[in-house]
Design goal:
Blueprint (H helix, E strand, L loop, with lengths): L1 H27 L2 E4 L4 E5 L12 E3 L26 E10 L8 E6 L6 E5 L2 E6 L6 E4 L9 E10 L17 E6 L2 E2 L5 E8 L3 E12 L5 E11 L2 E12 L3 E12 L12 E9 L2 E10 L4 E4 L3 E4 L2 E2 L2 E5 L13 H13 L4 E3 L7 H10 L2 E5 L30 H16 L5 E8 L6 H5 L23 H10 L7 H15 L5 E5 L2 H7 L7 E5 L5 H7 L5 E7 L2 H8 L6 E5 L4 E2 L9 E2 L12 H10 L5 E7 L5 E4 L4 E4 L26 E8 L3 E6 L2 E7 L7 E7 L4 E6 L5 E5 L6 E6 L3 E2 L6 E9 L12 E7 L2 E7 L13 E3 L4 E8 L4 E9 L2 E2 L3 E5 L1
Parallel strand pairs: 22-23, 22-29, 23-24, 24-25, 25-26, 26-27, 27-28, 28-29, 42-50
Antiparallel strand pairs: 1-10, 2-3, 2-4, 4-9, 5-8, 5-10, 6-7, 6-9, 11-13, 12-13, 13-16, 14-15, 14-17, 17-18, 19-20, 20-21, 30-31, 32-35, 33-34, 35-38, 36-37, 36-39, 39-40, 41-43, 43-47, 44-46, 44-48, 45-47, 48-49, 48-50
Helix pairs in contact: 2-3, 4-7, 6-8
Amino acid sequence: MKRSNQKNLILLAILCFLAACNSTQKEEARVTKDFNFDWEFYLEDDENQNKDALWQPVRLPHDWSVEHSFTQENTSGATAFLPGGIGWYKKEFTLPKNAKNKTTWIEFDGVYSNSEVWINNNYLGKRPYGYIPFKYNLTQYLKYGETNEIKVKVDRSAYIDCRWYPGSGIYRNVKLVTTNKLHIPQWGTFITSNKVDKKEALIAINTAIKNEATIHKKATLKTTIFYDGNEVSSTASKISSDKNSSKYIQQEIKITNPNIWDVEHPNLYTVTSEIILNDQIIDRKETVFGIRSFSFDKNKGFFLNGKNLKIKGVCLHHDAGLVGAAVPIGVWQRRLATLKKAGINAIRTAHNPPSEEFLDLCDKMGFLVQDEAFDEFNNPKDKKHNYNQQKADPLTAGYTNHFTEWSERDLKNMVLRDRNHPSIIMWSIGNEIEWTYPNYGKSTGYWGANKVGDVNYYYDEPPLSVEKIKANFTKEKQGEYNLAATAKKLSKWVKEIDTTRPVTANLVIPTVSNFSGYADVLDLVGLSYRQAVYDYSHRNYPNKTFIGTENWAKYHEWKAIENKDYISGIFLWTGIDYMGESRNWPKKGSGSGLLDFAGFKKPAYHMFKTLWNDESHIYITTQTQEKSPYKFDIKSGKVVEKEKGWSKKQKWGWQDVNEHWNYKKGDKIAVEVYTNESEIELFLDDKSLGIQKLKDVEDHILKWIVPYSEGNLVAKAVNFSNKTSISTAKEFNMLSLKADTKEINANGYDVIHFTVQLKDKNGNLIKHQDQEIEFIIDGNVKLLGVDNGSSTNIQDYQSNKIITSKGKALLILQANFEASSIKVKAVSKKIESETIEINIK
């Protein structure tokens, strides 16, 4: 027995030694820390920095503006009537003594705006642009085994610095990275698919190697590709790096029978890059990528993996209602999943680079992405009136003050960070930049001194010939800056980093930009609200490739390109309502989205679901005839527009419709039905109100005008079982509360969405009346806030009480760090919902 015990002890010692070796090996590899927690914040100027009472604990990502009340004092509708200011952040942390001979840097994915950073009172630098990722090397200033302090100043005192709501603060993720002196730098891996088909893919991996050591290093770079956790293939290359040097290692790996990434099957692979020195892994970096091919053809449009595909896109700003600009990924997941169900397959990140985790989500969910860099170049836009401007005052001073100095670094950082995302299919260098170059608009003949006749900029081709427009443009002064020359530099900088994707821009005056030199530096010409010039552009500039990059959420926008192969698709303005770009108090933002501020579906959503999703869909809206755009024409026996051609000229927003069946008896009601079924029969209870056919209407809306009477209004597909209905609702009697999940993790990130809906005693939805709702929350959880989706709701977000809009409201809660269970119920006028219990594991 003794000998057996000795053997066991020896075996145990060997195992412990091997475990220690493995532990040491892990310690020497890359350590990436989530650096979002244990920060402190105060909203003040420099004078009170040392007053401890002013500092409050915060969790990143953090947007201080959205935590304040909506107000007209020192705010603007352009930025949602929420305040700016100057904010300070600080955080204490320690690093182990064995990190002393390594390299440590901090990564910020976005700080809005004009950030400055110090470590242990040593100034690291500034970053003016609030939408761009950046890093600082901390190594020479760190104390090891002792407390370090990092401070960040954020200056948004120019509170009208943007045309939409930007948020304020460290509103995206922060990471702290420690590596060995020989390592792969930030964004140091670039993966491309050189050949893609169903049988084989050739994967090219370009890996940057940085040696900050003072001695010559010889090591090995091992690159392994994984799919679904399983190793697919690997390769290795010798590294010979001189001291204080950087170099690139080119590798190629063949994958047989690859799992292709596309919008329906977003398959993802992982590249693991390891630097091995003396049989130890001293750095290890993972990069997610997808295998896919795509192309744009000037005559045939867009192809993904060899298949012709129309881009059915939406533009999105980066805020998400009640959470402002600091958006938990679970909030984006809910919103994008809703858009996906409508058939949307693409997103334009208007008008700035998004967060890294937003793009990760697009990769996983199968969205195509246009990644956009700037809304302004050298000349500013008018934030107060949303039009042309040449100079900015102190309150509207934005990125244009820094564009000349910083645009190259910022643009390249965007491309470097985002180039491995399979979702990204184009880089946009700018949005409607021509606004700020006055000679562009004056040349067209649409308006100003050269206006010709009664023409409509949005719906009519230019009244002047190409030659005349050129002549007008040539005689106008170019101004201090040349737009085409600036765009040429931006395009060049993108292609210094990535040549696998086309460069585009959203052109608002393409009738000039197509010949001024601006469009010539673009691989793909984006057209902003310019369905009038689709044929004109293709006819006069047959060697250019065009796409609709900003379009109204209207059927006529889709109809204009549905059968035009040479237009690859469109991006609707917008997918979701966004804060800012408002001209009237108390409206806090734009209502042009398919979803509202709370992520609830709007009538326009249902219209595009009938256009972009093949599943049978029927949706009913109503309105009094007086408020509707329709009348009954006795001669034809049809419902027609009061103003001929009205539907073809509709722009932002949707017509004023209701989603209920509650009116006064005898009222004449215009009923609209959005569907992809060829024929719909309308019933009130069991009485038929007639059949309408899609082939008989130009606007894809079936219409009836009927006298109101209580009951159940049913729209039923003829010769098909699908139908939908809305019913007259009685008095408020019930609260329906639903949660989008039953379980989340205690990680400080996961969220739960609760939606409450008013109902009558029969369970009919009440959408014509509203009530104040109080959410009773029992348990350890963070309240993110409440909203009802309305653009005119300006109550504080951080509350557990809300007045519904259309009988509906939203509550969002976020996990803390303790496992527990929470209970939530909704209460109004002594009426209670059922209690929902959520497990936080």
